[in-house]
């Protein structure tokens, strides 16, 4: 790829970014777009003012920038929770790392690279049509003493990153504990999920639970809620909710629309009456299925609540039954975080689902390589001319060729990647996780490893999947292969950063998709008077993106330091834009209290070890065997450091220590509201599908149904 | 190796076995040998009678056989503990497996092998000088349909073994629980070991422990014992004990020996007086060091006791402190099982010891190959003649050559292996384990894997260590290499079974080494009037041997079924002899309540998977690719079965479930002796090196010192 192609891509994407920024600055001030650009503020009722028209509204302004900049971490913690803080710290972590690496890379490594003569000497006058390779480590002469500068840079950056990783892990751990101490009592702290409850003949699950826990944990046991299989009821309630909304909608419309001809020359039918009857039928059906579900006890699972956090924690940590496959305990999620559909599924079904998901992930990885290969083909212009000879005349235009080689490949890859995140969420959701947050965490990991494998390795070793797998089956040759393949792809990854990083982030600010949705619904004039739905940030999409850029920066900083400025621009954009979005757009749906950080930590450690492997290969290739030998201790030390961090910090992210739980319990003993909380706790984990429904009673009034649709 | 050589080896070893059996039958009836052959009975006082001489005493008899045969499992459980029962069940497990495999192997596979024509047709008249290969699977024609019989045998035996493994794991788990229920309260059930206790300035470890547990576990906490660094005191006490014994010995001797000349023409010195003074000095020194040790608090570790088993268990299972590297908990061993020397060592020291042990194990494995190579050289007679030409005339004698090729190799290997077990115990003891039983368990694992690697793989792939390692670095080629190498070694392993199995087991009965020790001490007339020391069975030596024979049988049953009768004879011998030894010789020193079984289970699973790998290789080699493909599911299913067993049974062997603990605690509540037990518990974990010593007071009386030498 030539420098000109890269510049074209940068140009197009910069233009797009500017357009998005201007669009946002103008549209966000129009009250009709508040729903798109500030749903959170709207929902909180703090953005209703200012519907009066004035000229200022049409001019782009940058007030939001300073507002986003000034937001402190404490404000963020209180408004968006610890997860948002952790997310922002991932961005600042990368910012710190790449500022440090950027100084070393641009000021020291880049001049060294340019001074080499291995490739064509750089003609600065002709820079525009030359290749980027002259700026990379490939240009340094083999056996040159200058390579020791790269060697030192690898050591310096590794030490800096490890120090930062330790600092961050420590900081977030302490935040997590502080968050726990400051939080009010929450049902999931007092509750565990028990599965595989054995039931003796003539007894039922509820009695079993009651007798087991009153016998063995009489002092701490509080109550339990048996789980029912409610998938049928859930789908019925969904139908009923739809019908109910339609009915409400009909009532508010002019009366002539309430009648409809039946048949070709039939009489008019009162639609209100018709739907009303159908709703009645549905309602009766729901009640029937609900009582059926309450009688059938085929799930053998229950939420069990305790009087103290420590009580719940001991039962969770100790094997309860003589038979280790009975009375299996799991930590309960928060009541509104529970993912009901798969909660009640049997052990066998969850086991099979898990197997299916593994196979599906492998299939997806294999099939995804097809678009990647196409993308790789597109960057090769002469290949394209051979395939499509009729395009020759168009491809000869220099701008078109630059767009095709510089911008199109990463755009296409981008579009395909858009589909991956929802697929991964779907796969995680059928894997048997019991909460939305766990599904999102699992999807986040899946998307991350998918991205690393299918973008990084597939681009580096562009070839068949079997070729890639064969490389990893022969671990001794990995560094050599990486050293050849990775530096050659520097220019592709620069365009990738620009397309996927810059444009995606600014389009996130301009909320392109919600904007389009908003405009189409407006045009079709189907005003639904539902409340504004405040979205939550899709961590499973955004965290892997940042971590993948972290991997790119860490692996490329000493190979092709030119990539770092592009990454820094991206990170600055992401920093300011996501702070703004947390203020205006996203509200937290659940709180994992920082459980996403270990994913980031592991990803960084992987990036470091990968970088070391590439360094070993590069120094061998450049005939500096001493340097490649001296790199070997670095991955070993990095992995030992990781092992230490796992021992030191990871336990916090799995369960709270006894000391913390007992202290918090003691505090609560003096709290007068505690008994009230325990009363509420008893009913906190009732399946929404089993709550009584009262559509008929509500149908005349315009009140919404009592049943919430969140859990369905 | 020719059949004649094997028969020579069998002949020599059978003769040795008969000699040992006769020797035992006669000597065991002589009262002067009771100390060797029935120390346990002697110590229990039930074998003092019958010192009157009669002729019957000189005739070999088989009364002990029926006595050993009649011993029931319940009797064994009550007299030798659950560990002995588990050990015997390992033997019966192998017996069951090889009876089943033997029927299939001898009745079905052997005729099939013999009917093949791949190798030289067997001339039954000339059997004596032919090779054993004609009886192995190597003789079956390539591509023959008869190989499907071997295929079915592999499936049948795998299913049978897995069924038995499940049954045994289940049985031993239930025995373990039953043992726990029936046992009296034991200190280690109520106690945990806490390490890395943080100490604030101006406080000490004891206060730290007291305040932490009274704050967070006020209802269950009972007491604690801080650990001191006592290695210096221990060595001093050891010296003092030696001196004390010498003094006691002197007192009982005739008076002229009590004086000794000092210098060339010096005056006589009263030795009693001389030693007495030195003992006084030592005693004062011990007291000084004891008080020093009590003041220095550099271990930051303590045994913490609780009022209930469940209380101790919750503290053990939950992370206690906010800092996960503080207040680390471990299960406490029984007081007399504690291994004091390394208990108080620091975290860093234990970590380094662990590293050193790993390196030492690798070194041992590498160095051990030297005798193995020599052994392999000895089996090759012509090679020997080239090396030592002067031996030619002797080697030409047919009997000598048969002894050298048939018997000598496994004998030499055997002698070298004798040294491995003590080395492994030593390595385990410096690895930082806190109890004798854990050291023995770890040594058992080490010896097992050492045996498998250095006997099985080193014999199969006789070559340099690098060649062996290179095979395992290329996992795809393992089955093919195994299929070529393993069947060729069948005859060597038959002689190995005969030498290591038959002769070792009967020499165990005849207690050759203790017998020699007994005779030498008797000759030197140094009668020491110490009490009889009852030995405990060295599980770390005996369990790996049985498991290794299990591996041999499982891998060879379809390759060379001729090995099975030899194994069955060995197992029958082991069955009856070890039962006899448990009655007469060995007394349990500690009780792990069956924790050795998971080692046996894992070893069997490994043997099965290894057998499957060999089968895959063999069927590929014999040009039956369909069969080798159809074997593939078998290791997968075996590993899944193992995974299930790990989930289902392994938790029992790590910790007792809450249900069991609470039930047992409830039973104790009604027990009047419980408060007395708790009083004793407070002082149960005092370091024997810190107990007061009173040699001077005892010196005139012939009482033994108050301090026990067990812990030093």
TrEMBL record, chains A, B:
InterPro entries the UniProt entry points to: Csc1-like, CSC1/OSCA1-like_7TM, CSC1/OSCA1-like_cyt, CSC1/OSCA1-like_N
Occurrences of domain CSC1/OSCA1-like cytosolic (ranges): 189-341
Keywords linked to the UniProt accession: Calcium, Coiled coil, Ion channel, Ion transport, Membrane, Transmembrane, Transmembrane helix, Transport
Listed transmembrane segments: 6-27, 86-110, 147-166, 355-374, 415-435, 447-467, 546-578, 599-618, 624-641
Domain CSC1/OSCA1-like 7TM region: 354-619
GO molecular function per UniProt: calcium-activated cation channel activity
Annotated compartments: Membrane
GO annotation, cellular component aspect: plasma membrane
Entry coiled-coil feature ranges: 272-299
Membrane topology according to the record: Multi-pass membrane protein
CSC1/OSCA1-like N-terminal transmembrane domain mapped to chain residues: 5-168
Primary location: membrane
Protein family according to the UniProt entry: Belongs to the CSC1 (TC 1.A.17) family.
Name the UniProt record assigns to this protein: CSC1-like protein At1g69450
Lineage: Eukaryota, Viridiplantae, Streptophyta, Embryophyta, Tracheophyta
